[in-house]
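Homework help board

Subject: predicted structure for assignment chain

Our instructor gave us this sequence and asked us to write out the predicted structure in token form, then describe one feature. I got the tokens but I'm not sure how to describe them. Can anyone check?
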Amino acid sequence: MLDVKIMKHIYPDLEWYSSISEEKGLSPRCPYANVHRCPRYYSSLFLLGKIGITTKMNNVKISELDEYWSKTDLLPVVGENDPGVFSSNNKNHNFTNFCPEITFDIYGLFASSLFKYTDEIDRDYMHSKLIKEAEEKDWRWDYSSVNEMHFISCPVYSQILTCPDEKILNNTNDEKDIFIMEPKVFGMGINLKQLFKKFRGK
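My token output:
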């Protein structure tokens, strides 16, 4: 007899997300969910502002961040790996390769992709089924497809953890290197080169 495995419906809300973090001993939310710490977070937020779903970023800030991330090896080299926003019927927005932290903040679901129904026929058909079989919480009322994602499964998160350029990702500057901990008489030395650069205004 064929053993059919029934897949459990996943509703990727904060409860689902937090339970995975707790199980693995991680922070409740992604520690890199910041425009200065993750290029995918930045790209996702930038796109939402570009199409008017959120407030658009300041152009000066966009230029700063573009230059900031261009100095790392974390940016995708092909468009298929970039976050993308597509429209159907000129109104329904579909999202691919998005930061799950961003999709939750805007739509309440931690997902790398969200797809609306292509037309009312597909939507109404699914709704007729959901009336009989829907879970207590079911994203299929609004979306035809959702790819849930926890930050530990995000490919960019894995790259950030092994990125060799810690100075850029930690958003540090030379000022923090003026004082250095070394085995000296008073337990602390002074980096004279960095101190000289600071007073020269570099």
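Reply (TA_rk): Your tokens look well-formed. For the description, you could write something like this. The radius of gyration is 22 Å. That's the kind of observation they're looking for.
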